[in-house]
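Hey, quick one: can you model this chain's 3D structure?
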Amino acid sequence: MLSKLLLHHRRTDAVLPLPRSALWRAVAGWMAILLCLGVYWSELSQTHQSQLDEVEANVRLRAEQTVHALALQVSTMIEKLDYLTLQLGESWLTEDERTFRRTVAVAQGALPAGAVVQVAIADERGEILFSSLVPAGATAAATKVSIADRPHFAVHLNRVEPALHISHPVLGRISGQWTVQLSRPVLRDGQIRGVIVVSVSAEHLSQALREIFPDPADVALLLREDGAYIARSHLLEGVLGKKVPDDRSFLQDRAIRHGFYDVVAPVDGVERYYAWRRVPDRPLVVSLGLSKSAAMATVRDSVRSSGLYNLLTTAALLLAALWITRLFLLKSRQTAALAEARERLDFALQGGGLGAWDWNCVTGENRCNAQWAKILGYAPGEAAPNFATWDTNIHPGDRDRVHAALDAHLRGETRQYHATYRMLRRDGETIWVLDRGRVVARDESGMPLRAAGTLADITERHAVELALDAERLRLTTLLQRFPGGVLMEDATGRVTIVNRGMCELLGLGDDPDALQGLTHEALCARIGPQRAAWLHVPDARRDGERRRSVELTDGDGRTFEIDWVPIMRDDAQLGRVWLVRDVSDRKQRETMLATLASTDALTALPNRRSFMSSLEAATAALRSNPGRQGVLLMIDIDYFKRVNDTYGHAAGDRVLCHVASLIRNGLRQQDVAARLGGEEFSALLLAVGLEDARLLADRLRARIAESSAEIGEGGEGGDGVTVTVSIGLSALSSAGAEAVLKQADHALYAAKAGGRNQVRVYAGEQT
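Sure thing. Here's the predicted structure for all 767 residues.
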């Protein structure tokens, strides 16, 4: 259409000539419009893509954080089921069937309804001896069922160390339900006497996941580490007995603990963002998939609406530009160059909110346009067109300064008259104005004849400038009170901002103002090579980093956290900022927390993980120095379950603390005592022979048996209870911590089997 308009105007050249400058301006204007639109649409496209990328990143982050929490929750659940399985196995050995059935019922009642489908006991041949699904008195019929062919039974026959096994979902032969079998060997005197199987409902696990993620668009998976499905929040029936494809990253490399993948699920055809994480210390993987379409729907709708809105706006802009071009070309035919220039000037004044004045320096007449009158609160034509009208409206506090600036220009001392001052509007309001002009005509002697200029109301701008000054003052105050050091350099490497905290941290006695303007090299020379190294963080354009944080320790043992932040505009670096904080107190608190993590919360003794580290170190020392001696004690409170059942868990905790105190006080300073879990303790005796260790252990046993634990009301005599312990000893060897622990455990079982309240020394499998 533009070309047609231009062609039409060319055809009418004979009637009314079209200035070539106007034609070229029209073409240039359209090129500028199209270029600006191209740049705008490019930026808009990048903005939309950035929004999509940001939403996708947030979805992945949410999936990762959620799956992390879910993995910890699954880990806690498995730990609880493992403990339940272990305790039920031990109860089977010590209780009759009727009592054991009540114990099973109590255990099932402690879990959500429907979670545990069945608790079963199989003998060493795989024959079912007990099933919670078979009523009392009908158990003999259940023994016709065998699980000898089930992997969750067979796995324990050749396993060296007893451990919990988590099976693939199987269809129960008694329950008739799909369940996940949690099995453990039942040991007596170190020999396997059967296998306990706790059948957990796969549907219950899936229901638990479904309660967390009710929307079928999102899905949570619980998998074995071989990829087999255990539970799925939705459509469980479609995946039971199946595995995920082999190309999943957690199947490719078992060393990877967590990750992401994007796939379309075959079972429901939904494309999702998946985040996965391995369950700590368990052969399980938790995976969470968030629907891609649902996650991106809002932002895609927003992008689509924005695109449509901008398309319509662009079309309207092009139509408006086309119409303006037509008017411009028509006007260019009908006006002379001078009239056209004057019109453009009027448009510029109106668009910029500028008032124009034209002063006859000889007669004093001062002609002003409507905008000038409007600025001062006058209606068009109301203000008297003379110099006095302007002069009387100048604020009295600024009048002398304005007169001096104007007189200097009239005398020819300045190229232009320029003044910023206050004026009084007709209604008495004070405004700030920017007044500019110049002499446009002088007589032969140089006296001014005529001057012209503009007047602009800059009240809002002046307020903004005052606000900026106040903001700069607040920033300066903030920097000086910042709890650390702040250093800023511009793009050339010169210091622009530095606070007193940075001067103190860098060991400088200088005033911060003395460092401003220094080059980076000069600053490094002043602070010395050690602290200068703190500032030499790689430039973001070289290694791709946008921010980097490091921790450094100085010669005085203080720890500093240094953040390096580049100041960027698009891809251009405008400068960089260093934030330095003394985090020595925080590091000390972290060290204290690490100590708490290695201590048993109830007894204040080292916990199992801490003790195993000490035992590993002791056996490693034996390998490098065979002449060393040491003994491991395994200590177990006899009949501790009766204490809990009789007096309650609170009393049991007091008994544990009492025994822990006696063990700790009964050892030497270099010995290490620990609580391994439950009522089981251990002690590592260093630099001692087996006989001396046996005597120490016997004294410790006697002291515990002779003392009474204060438990408050309900104890024997009203305030105390006496317990005994069985102790197993094993000499340290270079075979390793697990081997020594197993030997001491074997001796402990021998002490238990021998009647309890005694000390046994490991002397081979016949102890």
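One thing worth noting: The two ends are 106 Å apart (CA to CA).
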